[in-house]
Specification:
The chain is α/β, with parallel strands linked by helices and about 450 residues long. The protein binds uridine-diphosphate-N-acetylglucosamine (UD1) and magnesium ion.
């Protein structure tokens, strides 16, 4: 059967008390609309239509490639929002999946169950419901004595008795398309002056059509976002979902509640994550690593058997057996070869540290290439910027950079060369020689016992 999907995202989201449109608030680092969009896309294999408000330029900007946008100029309720796509979708499919944009944790599998249920329902549509004592303002599903659905009562209009109903309208529906496009324009105006999509239930029942229900068991899936508190609840639920998946794949966490793993992250087995570790963006971590505590890793690739403690790693690549921290900052373009040791208070940006390089104490390395096995003494700084341009530093394999050396780029320290403590190196130091002083001058060749 042909199906189209529609996401309703034009609401003002006033309960968020925020200048940002509700669907652009982030969950797991991704805007809410991207979550719902991906779930609909996966469930239907179609690019969903998204109904947005007239002032939603920012939303267009964020999600433009993956969805079709339709504008709802006046915000007259969920029924009215769906009506905005009627002209485009009428006659295009047999079924229409409709999902509220503020349900980011709905799984594609649950949407697929909803669709399958409607495929075998002779009645006009199926809605998704869940049983929960925590209503979060959801509409209640009203059934008659025989258990047939007869209506949805919005929380704002419910009597105290109706408020005790624990079956909730989740906000996802699958309609028989012709029936939907025929009945949608006939929705009555609610007491609040809006056209409620949920009033289609009473219309179907009045005609003798059966409204079927697909129920979702995992209550985390139905956390709808209406306030910032709901957003935090969804964040916690997403964290539980992601962390559970990784623990089942062999990743250990000392405290899953304080371990934050983004949805696109990949982790190897036997890796241990310590508390307050944030792994974000497109990060890949190998096997048997130990990350944290208090560590941020963003958009980076970390090999096997690495250790990163109390540090920030952004846009960096670490080969196997690299040891970082505490208090290190790896920035964009940092490449640490196999077995590099980088101790406390170091910063590396746009630089390659060859295998086995040791940089144990506070140092800044930017725009540099450091050869295998070199030793970078405490307080070494690559002076790579003259206020206008950046310049490169090259340090040869096996070089020994004395404590507090200033390397004024562009400059090269040769293979096996040494610099004295406090040297300010303004000219190249040849292979195998020793340079000292301010500005540094070459005094002799490296001796065997140097
Ligand atoms: C809606 C349902 C309620 C359900 C709940 C669960 C209605 C009338 N009520 O209530 O039964 O339990 O969702 O998620 O449908 N929107 C528009 N245009 C509008 C108004 C809303 O596009 O004019 C969009 C919003 O952006 C939102 C969605 O529709 O994504 C639902 O609107 P919202 O205001 O959140 O409705 P709820 O009060 O949550
Ligand atoms: Mg809502």
């Amino acid at each position: 059967m042909k199906i189209e999907a529609v996401i309703l995202a034009a609401g003002l989201g006033t309960r968020m008390e925020s200048k940002l449109p509700k669907v652009l608030h982030l969950l797991g680092g991704r805007p809410l609309i991207a979550w719902t969009g991906a779930a609909c896309q996966e469930a239907t294999n179609r690019r969903p239509y998204v109904v947005i408000g007239p002032d939603a330029e920012k939303i267009r900007h964020v999600a433009s490639a993956e969805v079709n946008f339709v504008e709802q100029v006046e915000r007259l309720g969920t029924g009215h929002a769906l009506l905005q796509v009627a002209d485009q979708l009428r006659g295009k499919s047999n079924l229409v999946l409709v999902v509220n944009a503020d349900l980011p944790l709905l799984r594609p599998e649950s949407l697929r169950c909803l669709i399958e249920q409607q495929e075998s329902n002779p009645g006009p549509f199926t809605l998704m419901s869940a049983i929960s004592e925590l209503s979060r303002g959801f509409g209640r599903v009203e059934r008659d004595r025989d258990g047939l659905v007869v209506g949805i009562i919005e929380q704002a209009h419910a009597t105290p008795e109706q408020l005790t109903i624990s079956e909730l309208n989740v906000g996802a529906y699958c309609y028989q398309a012709d029936w939907l496009w025929d009945h949608l324009p006939k929705l009555p105006l609610s007491p609040k002056g809006e056209y409620y999509l949920t009033d289609l239930v009473a219309m179907a029942v009045a005609e003798g059509g059966e409204v079927s229900v697909s129920s979702v068991e995992d209550l985390d899936e139905i956390i709808g976002i209406n306030t910032c508190e709901h957003l935090a609840q969804a964040e916690a639920a997403l964290r539980r979902r992601i962390n559970r998946g990784w623990m089942l794949a062999g990743v250990s966490m000392l405290d899953p509640e304080s371990t934050y793993i983004g949805p696109e992250v990949q982790l190897g087995s036997d890796t241990v994550l310590l508390p307050n570790t944030h792994i974000e963006g497109r990060t890949i971590v190998g096997v048997s690593c130990r990350l944290g505590p208090n560590t941020v890793v963003r958009d980076s690739t970390i090999g096997d058997y690495c250790r990163v403690e109390v540090s920030v790693v952004e846009g960096a690549i670490l080969e196997d057996e690299v040891d970082v921290g505490p208090f290190a900052h790896l920035r964009r373009g940092a490449y640490l070869g196999r077995g590099v040791h980088m101790g406390n208070f170091g910063e590396v940006k746009d630089s390659t540290l060859g295998p086995g390089v040791k940089m144990g104490h506070f140092s800044y390395v930017g725009d540099a290439t450091i050869g295998e096995g070199a030793n970078i003494g405490a307080g070494t700084v690559t002076c790579n910027y003259d206020g206008e341009r950046k310049y490169k530093t090259e340090i040869g394999p096996g070089a020994f950079i004395g404590s507090d050396t200033m390397l004024v780029a562009p400059v090269r320290v040769g293979r096996g060369a040494r610099t004295g403590a406090g040297a300010v190196v303004t000219r190249d130091v040849p292979d195998g020689s020793v340079a000292v002083g301010v500005p540094a001058r070459v005094i002799r060749k490296v001796k065997k016992n140097d």
